[in-house]
Design brief:
There is one protein chain. With about 180 residues, this protein is α+β, with helices and mostly antiparallel strands. Helix content is about 35%, strand content about 25%. The radius of gyration is 18 Å and the shape is elongated. The strands form three sheets. The chain has a four-stranded mixed β-sheet with strand order 3-2-1-5. The chain has a two-stranded antiparallel sheet with strand order 4-7. Strands 6-8 form a two-stranded antiparallel ribbon. It has one domain: Nucleotidyltransferase, domain 5, CATH 3.30.420. Helix 1 crosses helix 6.
Amino acid sequence: MTESGYIIALDQGTTGTTAVLVDGSGRSVWSVNREIEQIYPKPGWVEHDPSELFESCVEVAAELLEEMEVHPRAVRAIGITNQRETALVWDRATGEPVMNAIVWQCRRTAPICESLASSGLEATIREKTGLPIDPYFSATKYRWILDAIPDGQARAEAGELACGTVDSWLVWQFTNGTVHITDV
């Protein structure tokens, strides 16, 4: 162990999860990777199992520490990078996802995007967000999920649901549901 300890960088990406051990001088010491399953329920749709996303992070981090014989107490921080626009919604009380995560590549929300554009909202949305209307971005994914689950909108308005991208989900899981944040 270095005197200043270690940092674990977790990269939960589209095709896999990588953990990198960084020493006190900022050098990458070792890395471990695990592929994750891509789920294609319909043409143009892409999903991930949220539980697998979290479990893959735990597994690669544990393997990394074991291989390098580093005690978990020597880890001073964990940094998370992830597939930015993949969207999840979960139950705040149970911590369980309401469905699979909708991956950034998924095109299922194209009809929602078309409806927004045909309603003349494109300029307003671009002005407020700086972004075009496109299924790539998370907002229409959240709308789709709330429409797809029983009482989704009502449950969201009652504060029963949490939503976020993969980083939010991972932090929620790592903190046993005590922290709901994102870097955006």
